[in-house]
Amino acid sequence: MLATCTAWRPARACEYFAPTLRITHPWTRVTPADAAHAVLCMRIDEVTQADRLLAVHTPVAERVLTGRGAAEGALPLDIPAGQDLLMSETGLHLRLQGLQQPLEIARSYPLTLVFERGGAVNAALNVDYMRFA
User: Fold this and answer.
1) Contact yes or no for 18/119 (Cβ under 8 A)
2) Do 79 and 38 contact (CB within 8 A), yes or no?
3) How far is Cα 66 from Cα 93, in angstroms, rounded to an integer?
4) Are 86 and 71 in contact (CB under 8 A)?
């Protein structure tokens, strides 16, 4: 029994798993009270099978779009097998549009990522000053 227990890979607090991939540390920055949007960053890796991010749900935003710089687009977002997808403030990211409230430092908010093959993954959206290394 001990050998079986030690064979499991330990998960860090900011890692979430779907059958097809891993999501690491979904985060955004603090927003002022009048902010219309926020940028959602995270890392998607360990992609064992191509998948697509179909939807993102969180009570803090009316809708979630994809973004790259100032350009916005609609989901779905293709996630190729065997590749890491780093979503950052300056590159590809998700944009939380129509914020329902200011996002406060050190708070976590519910976040659900819906994948075509991996299904729904419940996660926490963390509000940080910057990304963890």
Assistant:
1) yes
2) no
3) 6
4) no
Q: For residues 69 and 80, what is the distance between their CA atoms, to the nearest angstrom? A: 21
Residues 49-68: pLDDT tens digits? 999 999 999 999 999 999 98
Distance CA 78, CA 38 (A): 22
Q: Which residues contact 124 (CB under 8 A, 6 or more apart)?
A: 14, 26, 108, 109, 110, 111
Residue for token digits 């290394």? 133
Q: What is the pTM of this model?
A: 0.86
Burial pattern 117-132, b for ≥16 Cβ within 10 A else e, equals: ebeebebbbbbeeeee
